Amino acid sequence: MNGYERLLATIRGQAADRTPVAPQLFGHAAHLCNVSLRDYEQSGALMADCQLRMQAHYRSDAVFAFMDFCVESEALGSRVRFYDTQYPEIVDYVLPAQADAGALRLPDPMADGRLPEMLRGIAALRAGLGDRVLLTGCLLGPMTLAAQLYGIENALFLAADMPERYETALDFATACAIRYGQAQLAAGAHLVTVFDPAASPAVVPPAFFRQLLLPRLQRLLAALRRAGALATWLNIAGPTAPILASYPAAGADIATFDYEVSVAEACRLLPDSCLVGNLKALDFLDAHPERITLAARQLVDACRERGRFILSSGCEIPPESAPANIAALLAACDAGG
User: Fold this and answer.
1) CA–CA distance, 68 with 280 (Å, rounded to integer)
2) Exposed, middle or buried: residue 307 (CB in 10 Å: 0-12, 13-18, 19+)?
3) Torsion sign over Cα 31, 129, 124, 126
4) What is the overall mean pLDDT for the chain?
5) Distance (Å, rounded) from C-alpha 114 to C-alpha 152?
6) What is the DSSP letter of 192?
7) Ramachandran area for residue 156 (φ above 0: left; ψ -120 to 50: alpha; else beta)
8) Rounded distance between C-alpha atoms, residue 170 and residue 268, angstroms
């Protein structure tokens, strides 16, 4: 089996030749290829080249088409500051506090900001990978993009003080995500991973997730499925145990869980979902490779009988992580799966 076939079988609950491995490697591709993050994040061709070289080096089963978490917000008008050795930051948000997001124009993935560069990168990745390795696009979920319209502090105040106006922002963010996700699928992504870190219970109460975010996630994931996504993938980091049971209702086939949720608890809460996780991402910075190997094999063993498990980190592996630790993860999967 190749990586694409292995992952597709696992997602569908079918037998695979081994446990698939899909480490969340984004900016690490630039680090591995001695390219500045500033350059990597602004060129779809360079992003694709680095990701292809990294996949050839580590032999992972999936590749993430990802630049940074500011791409959509920048396309909407936020001002972003770039750095050579760290991810960019938003220094000027597109909306002032309490402004109405309904006045904003939906960004055009073919024309606005770096969205076209991302689509060019996805097309280049699909051309290079074909159907040998699963290619997943990446986009921000409704809560995170809505928060980036105002800044997280202003957004949370708005959600508490003017909930109807914040729901307008959530609806706008959902429409942005649908349009961008459809464009990524048309460019060649097999599926699209929805990252929504601001939806974590570490940021908003679980009741907020169920009442306000769940219906928007349903809308988004259903639209991605209709646009041809092979599966739907929801990725929220942090202590997500209080909301994991809602993922099937959101329409998520694949659920990432972080190290703050045990594998036993994730299996109990999501008995029929394909799980992805849950190695601690920061361990890849300075842990000994043997520690990564042990933790990875324990996860593979714990899910061997269950199936429907993809070995990965619970969130992004930091760009500057030790290559030996990432190689240990891939080797452990081969040995254990």
Assistant:
1) 20
2) middle
3) negative
4) 95
5) 22
6) E
7) alpha
8) 30
pLDDT of residue 289: 93
Token pair recorded at residue 261: 């949720």
pTM: 0.95
Peptide bond into 278 cis (omega under 30): yes
What contacts 191, CB < 8 A, 6 or more positions away? 134, 136, 137, 185, 224, 229, 230, 231, 232, 233
What is the CB neighbour count within 10 angstroms for residue 282? 14
Report the Cα 258 to chain-centroid distance in Å.
Answer: 12
Strand order in the sheet with 274-279: 62-64, 134-140, 191-195, 232-235, 254-257, 274-279, 309-313
More confident residue, 219 or 160: 219
| Residue of 136, 164, 94, 167 whose CA lies nearest to 231 | 136
SS3 139: strand
Beta carbons of 21 and 300 less than 8 angstroms apart: no
Q: How far apart are CA 185 and CA 323, in angstroms?
A: 30
CATH class of 3-336: alpha beta
d(CA 121, CA 124): 5
Stated as kind and residue range, the H or E segment containing 134 is strand 134-140
Report how far residue 19's alpha carbon sits from residue 69's, in angstroms, rounded to the nearest whole number: 29
- What the block records as the tokens of 220 is 């988004």
| Cα→Cα distances 12→126, 137, 233, Å | 22, 19, 13
Q: Name the percent of the chain lying above pLDDT 70.
A: 99
Among candidate residues 261, 260, 326, the one with its CA nearest the CA of residue 287: 326
Cβ contact 27:37 at 8 Å: yes
pLDDT digit string, tens, across residues 25-67: 999 999 999 999 999 999 999 999 999 999 999 999 999 999 9
The tens digit of pLDDT for each residue in 96-121 reads 988 899 889 999 999 999 999 999 99
